[in-house]
Amino acid sequence: MKWTLLYRLSDHGVSMNTFTNKLQGFETTLIIIQDSKRYKFGGFCTEEWVFNSGFYGTGENFVFTFGKGDKCEMWDASGDNSMY
């Protein structure tokens, strides 16, 4: 798998439109965010992003966090409801 950087705040600016436009056309994406307290978290999506008011996705998508350490905690779809 070839990795391609699609969006970086320091390179592309603070724009949700730019962020969403950069994701278009890519089916598999990994998003990693580091906040001002160096807390790392993100998500993995196995399909192209759709921006609307509804929810969508498969059980292959998940969210994760590293907290302030090296241990990765992951949450995948529970199936408990239609949102995740």
Descriptive account of the structure:
This protein is an alpha+beta fold and 84 residues long. It has helices at 9-12, 16-23, and strands at residues 29-34, 40-45, 62-67, 73-76. The protein has a 4-stranded antiparallel sheet with strand order 1-2-3-4, with no helix packed on it. The model has no long low-confidence stretch (mean pLDDT 85).
Secondary structure layout plus pairing:
Layout (H helix, E strand, L loop, with lengths): L8 H4 L3 H8 L5 E6 L5 E6 L16 E6 L5 E4 L8
Antiparallel strand pairs: 1-2, 2-3, 3-4
**Reading side by side through the largest sheet, how are the strands ordered?**
1-2-3-4
Report the strand count.
4
Helix/strand/pairing category: alpha+beta
Q: How would you describe the shape?
A: globular
Distance between the termini: 27 Å
Share of β-strand residues: 25-35%
Proportion of helical residues:
10-25%
Average pLDDT, rounded to a whole number, is 85
Q: What Rg, in angstroms, do the CA atoms define? A: 14 Å
Tell me about the largest β-sheet. Answer: 4 strands, antiparallel
- Total number of helices: 2
H and E order? HHEEEE
Uncertain regions spanning at least 5 consecutive residues: none
